[in-house]
Specification:
The protein is α/β, with parallel strands linked by helices. Helices cover 23% and strands 20% of the residues. A 6-stranded mixed sheet has the order 7-6-5-8-9-10, sandwiched between helices. Helix 1 (104-121) packs antiparallel against helix 2 (149-158), helix 1 runs parallel beside helix 7 (331-343) and helix 4 (200-212) runs parallel beside helix 5. Residues 5-39, 176-196 and 260-302 have low confidence and may be disordered.
Length: 389
């Protein structure tokens, strides 16, 4: 497997583009006015979306309309507001495997519409920033955090699949590298051998852990994919945990690929009880791609990956929203709905009744007192100071 991050930059922002090719460095956040909500290290901030029984956004709730628990213990809500002036940080992650090429033009238009809304239409748009990553045989940062629509549109226009020639060259380079691991710098991805495939989980993990980790404000990823991961170093749990640690909601847009999916195992296990008891594995393991048979031993075929279910799980576990694009011309409408949801979000803050200095995971349950309302937020958080396991 190989994961490589390439930062596209221009002379206009040369000061922001001093990244080595094999590492994925953080970019400083430009100075900007202090956001309206100030969060201390002991407080938890949750982005919250509320919908009625018809699916329409509800914009008139008060904190007294909600009930919050942490690890089944009742909590006191400190604030519950719609902070439209707090800056947004948005990441666009696009699956560019050749089997997804039929959707590429529609993805470009839809992502471009979302970029225009975030950086020009939404309140306080001048402080909002976005980045673009594509993933297939490798994960590649095409445009770092920027408030420039032109730069993002250019990156979208230039986006394409990693070529086989590039893969062969990088494999040759990797075969000469004896470090055999993620790289010499902790937390950064380093070139290594690869089999080809899709690195969905690595893309989410690295976008969360390397790009979003030091950002403040409202944060979200929008992922375009069929949900199939063949070659990630990180597992599904690793990706979701990384998003949880930085308070990142992931909005997934499921598109069917043009080719049949291979028989490979379901990736990773759910560290919080699994999905109907059927998900098994350990964090840090790969996706469990099908291995060649050894000798005459016959092994049962592993089940096909349910990409749709994976995309649903990623969105549900991080407090985002799952969308299915049954037609390519529906992508722009879906991105419009995501933009509307981001504009209509509440921000909830509370101080947990028990202090955790060990960085453990804490499950959150947030419900509306009215049964006809659906409340959406992330399923939990890691206490400050916890490191990825």
């Amino acid at each position: 497997m190989q994961i490589r991050f390439v930062v596209c930059f221009s002379a206009v922002i040369l000061a922001l583009a001093c990244l080595p090719l094999a590492t994925f460095a953080q970019q400083p956040v430009p100075s900007q006015p202090m956001p309206a909500v100030k969060i201390s290290s002991s407080e938890v901030m949750l982005p919250v979306t509320v919908r009625d029984k018809k699916g329409a956004l509800v914009a008139s709730l008060k904190f007294s309309d909600l009930t919050l628990t942490e690890d089944s213990r009742p909590q006191v809500i400190k604030s519950f507001t719609r902070e439209v002036n707090m800056p947004f940080r948005l990441g666009l992650l696009v699956d560019t495997r050749r089997s997804m090429m039929g959707a590429m033009d529609s993805e470009r238009k839809a992502a471009g519409k979302l970029v225009d809304t975030l950086l020009a239409v939404m309140p306080n748009a001048g402080q909002n920033q976005a980045f673009l990553i594509h993933f297939d045989r490798e994960v590649e940062l095409l445009e770092d955090f920027t408030s420039s629509r032109d730069r993002l549109h250019h990156a979208l226009d230039e986006m394409g699949s990693t070529s086989a020639a590039q893969d062969e060259a990088r494999n040759a380079q990797s075969n000469g590298n004896n470090n055999g691991g993620w790289g010499q710098t902790p937390g950064h991805a380093q070139a290594r051998g690869m089999r080809g495939g899709s690195q969905l989980f690595d893309a989410i993990y690295l976008a969360s852990d390397e790009l979003m980790k030091k950002q403040y404000g409202r944060k979200a990823l929008v992922v375009f994919s069929d949900g199939v991961d063949r070659d990630s170093r990180m597992s599904l749990n690793d990706a979701v945990d990384a998003a949880d640690r930085v308070g990142l909601a992931v909005y997934t847009i499921y598109l069917k690929s043009e080719q049949e999916r291979p028989a490979i195992g379901l990736p990773g296990g759910d560290h919080r009880g699994g999905m109907n008891g059927s998900w098994h594995g350990s964090a840090g393991a790969g996706t469990g791609a099908a291995q060649p048979e050894e000798g005459p031993i016959l092994r049962p075929k592993k089940p096909l990956v349910d990409g749709r279910k994976i995309m649903e799980m990623i969105a549900t576990r991080t407090g985002g929203h799952f969308y299915e694009a049954k037609k390519m011309d529906s992508l722009e409408e879906i991105c419009g709905q995501i933009a509307q949801e981001l504009r209509g979000q509440y921000l909830l803050t509370y101080t947990p009744d028990m202090v955790d200095n060990e960085g453990g995971f804490h499950k959150i349950t947030l419900k509306a007192n009215k049964d006809d309302l659906t409340v959406i937020t992330r399923e939990g958080y890691y206490a400050p100071g916890g490191e990825a396991k």
